[in-house]
Amino acid sequence: MKEGLLVIDKPSGMTSHDVVEVVRRRFKMKRVGHSGTLDPVATGILVILLGRATKLFTQFVHFDKAYEATLRLGVVTTTGDVQGAVVKEQDPGGVTPDEVRRVFGTFLGQRQQVPPMVSAIKYKGQRLYELARRGIQVERTARPIKIYELSITRLDLPEIDFTVRCSKGTYVRRLGEEIGEALGVGGFIARIRRVALGPFQIKDAVSLDVFNESHIRHWSS
Questions:
Q1: Is there a single domain that holds both residue 140 and residue 34?
Q2: Helix (H) or strand (E) holding 73
Q3: Is residue 26 within 8 Å of residue 70, measured between CB atoms?
Q4: Does 204 participate in catalysis according to the annotation?
Q5: Can you give the residue range of the structural domain that contains 106?
Q6: Number of neighbours of residue 41 by Cβ within 10 angstroms
Q7: Has residue 146 been placed in a domain?
Q8: CATH code where residue 20 lies
């Protein structure tokens, strides 16, 4: 019986559950799970749990994470990313590079973040994203998060490439929206890639097209 972990580089356009189904079919096994949802638009590290390793889920959700992302200023969408419908546009021409750097600096450290509606958090037994699809908005409680590192890697306004290393429970889509709000013009995440999850780095990940049994890792808690 196959047991252990697969570190997959999830492609854009697939849900985390889609990746699980691919693994199930290729390995001809039912007991397959994942370590925590990545948005369909996101790419990067998705740890797949095989066999008895599915019981290790709670270990992985507590890991810190790191992402590379692109924030596009001046447009607000319903989902906070490129997949949502545009709800507001504002000219970002008055935003300066110095202002962007200053605002980015204010998001470092411990803070509270309200989860987005398009998330897997449950509200009265239903996932928030299920409610959001029906146009229902509910009150969400802010949660403590921590931003350990936040660095701008490309500043070509209205686009900003950045990297972030953060605690569990941090929503990068929401972080992008918050930065856009702080700059007074709104914004959405146009690209996002998870490049680290706890001890796993993107260089450890294998493409969904080529993974096989030789890529299974054993994991001890």
A1: no
A2: strand 65-73
A3: no
A4: no
A5: 65-197
A6: 18
A7: yes
A8: 3.30.2350.10
Query: Are residues 141 and 182 part of one domain?
Result: yes
Of 39, 98, 156, 161, which one is the catalytic site residue? 39
Confidence check: pLDDT of 139 > 80: no
Mean pLDDT of 176-183: 97
Q: Report if residue 221 sits inside a domain.
A: no
Q: Exposed, middle or buried, 24 (CB in 10 Å: 0-12/13-18/19+)?
A: middle
Q: Dihedral angle at the C-alpha atoms of 59, 64, 66, 70, nearest 10 degrees?
A: 100
- pTM for the predicted model, two decimal places: 0.92
Count how many domains the chain has: 2
Q: Are residues 35 and 70 in the same domain?
A: no
CA 60 to chain centre: 14
Q: Which of residues 58 and 49 earns the better pLDDT score?
A: 49
- 125 shares its domain with 170: yes
- Kindly state the helix (H) or strand (E) to which residue 75 belongs, with its residue range: strand 75-77
Q: What is the pLDDT of residue 115?
A: 83
Is 42 part of any domain?
Answer: yes
Pairing of strands 143-156, 126-127: unpaired
In a domain, 174, yes or no: yes
Cβ 116 vs Cβ 174: under 8 Å:
yes
- 60-91: per-residue pLDDT in tens? 888 999 999 999 999 999 888 888 889 999 99
Phi, psi dihedral angles at 161 (to 5 degrees): -90, 135
State the pLDDT confidence band at 221, using cuts at 50, 70 and 90: low
Higher pLDDT, 147 or 129: 147
Tokens of 76: 């607000």
Residues 141 and 182 in one domain: yes
